[in-house]
Structure to design on (439 residues):
């Protein structure tokens, strides 16, 4: 079978795309022929001292780069191997790229991410719902940091009614994760509506404290709702995945957690307006009912209402007495009729029982006579059946002739080309017709 070029290339592409060992792979090497176009696409060659492979990045992935790559840079890239069909060229589609000096950290990050995800620490079903109006909030952030200042400004502008407590923690370095875990366990026992864990922007290495396994597990087990605002929008730490809600920045964490106080005031004003309107309508309705009652003669002379009620009560008592009397007479009549009906029913039962016995006797006599007559008739039929049965005929020396399972009664019914079967009293003969003789 001859293949077209497009068929061959498409087959190779499908094989590469379906190979899970060639998807989301980490490759290190040196950049050469680097080109970054205005459209956002990036093209380059990744090489070492023995081989090279063409690479490209889509604009959405290129935008997330935290450094400016150039020829000669040693980098660690993550992506999928495939074939570009138009040229049939093997190509690495890069999703992420980091300077290779941090390669070990990224490997640790990816390995721990897979482990914690498999254990369920990032499951959406475990995440808690936030309170619509949080009034007591704990903020864990770097002491006197720009992030702390931005959060304070955002709270003052957006939700100044909240009681916000700030707990300075280390947000970078080898002791940062343990410091954050200790503070989280402390504030989780203090009855806050929510906790904000925040840090300003930084490199992947700067933010690595928030990828600590113990910190992730502590966030997962918190009883208090927690929202993270760590780094910039493109930065994702393992703490973000474990938190109940992730915000792209510290300021965004405040915005996602709290309502706008102006909006709340507007809702309160709207509720007040509806409440006042409803209360006013009820007051007007009550006033109208009161006015109607004031115009009633019973309001001016309450005794008339009592007198009328007493007369009504006397009437009902008399009616009740008469009803009870009629009921008693009716019950006596029912009892009398019931007794008469029982006597009549017993008489009819006895009368019908005698008739039934007579009917049974007559039916039994007729049935026995019928059975005798039928036995005589059956015996006569058995004699006739035996006289005319095929077995009896065969016993007299006759034979039955069949052709293709059909009984032959006439020469006209015979097919000379077909064999016949002759049934006699003690067996069957298969015969071939040599000649048909007519009488």
């Amino acid at each position: 079978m001859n293949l077209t070029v497009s068929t061959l290339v498409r087959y190779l592409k499908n094989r590469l795309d379906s190979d899970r060992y060639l998807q989301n792979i980490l490759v290190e090497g040196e950049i050469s022929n680097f080109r970054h176009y205005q459209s956002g696409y990036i093209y380059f060659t990744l090489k070492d001292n023995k081989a090279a492979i063409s690479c490209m990045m889509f604009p959405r992935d290129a935008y997330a780069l935290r450094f400016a790559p150039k020829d000669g840079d040693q980098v660690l890239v993550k992506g999928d191997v495939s074939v570009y069909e138009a040229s049939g060229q093997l190509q690495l589609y890069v999703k992420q790229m980091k300077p290779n000096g941090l390669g070990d950290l990224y490997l640790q990050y990816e390995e721990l991410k897979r482990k914690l995800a498999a254990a369920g620490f990032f499951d959406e079903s475990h995440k808690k719902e936030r309170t619509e109006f949080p009034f007591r909030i704990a903020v864990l952030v770097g002491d006197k940091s720009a992030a702390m200042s931005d959060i304070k400004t955002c709270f003052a502008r957006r939700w100044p009614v909240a009681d916000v407590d700030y707990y300075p923690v280390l947000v970078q370095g080898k002791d940062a994760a343990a410091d954050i875990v200790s503070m989280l366990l402390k504030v989780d026992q203090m009855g806050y509506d929510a906790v904000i864990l925040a840090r300003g922007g930084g490199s992947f290495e700067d933010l690595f404290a928030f990828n600590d396994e113990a910190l992730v597990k502590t966030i997962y087990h918190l009883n208090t709702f927690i929202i993270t605002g760590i780094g910039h929008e493109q930065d994702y730490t393992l703490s973000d995945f474990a938190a109940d809600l992730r915000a792209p920045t510290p300021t965004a964490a405040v915005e996602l957690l709290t309502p706008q106080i102006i909006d709340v005031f507007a809702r309160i004003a709207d509720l007040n307006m509806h409440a006042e309107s409803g209360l006013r309508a009820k007051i007007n309705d009550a006033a109208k009912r009161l006015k109607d009652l004031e115009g009633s003669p019973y309001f001016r002379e309450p005794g008339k209402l009592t007198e009328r009620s007493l007369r009504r009560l006397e009437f009902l008592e008399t009616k009740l007495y008469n009803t009870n009397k009629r009921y008693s007479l009716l019950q006596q009549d029912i009892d009398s009729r019931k007794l008469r009906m029982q006597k009549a029913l017993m008489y009819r039962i006895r009368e019908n029982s005698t008739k039934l016995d007579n009917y049974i006797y007559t039916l039994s006599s007729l049935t026995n006579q019928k059975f005798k007559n039928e036995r005589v008739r059956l015996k006569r039929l058995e004699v006739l059946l035996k006289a005319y049965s095929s077995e009896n005929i065969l016993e007299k020396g006759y034979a039955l002739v069949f052709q293709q399972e059909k009984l032959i009664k006439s020469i006209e019914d015979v097919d000379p080309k077909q064999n016949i079967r002759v049934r006699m009293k003690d067996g069957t003969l298969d015969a071939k017709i040599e000649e048909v003789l007519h009488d």
About this structure: The longest strand covers residues 25-36. Residues 334 and 340 are 10 Å apart (CA to CA). The chain has a mean pLDDT of 87.
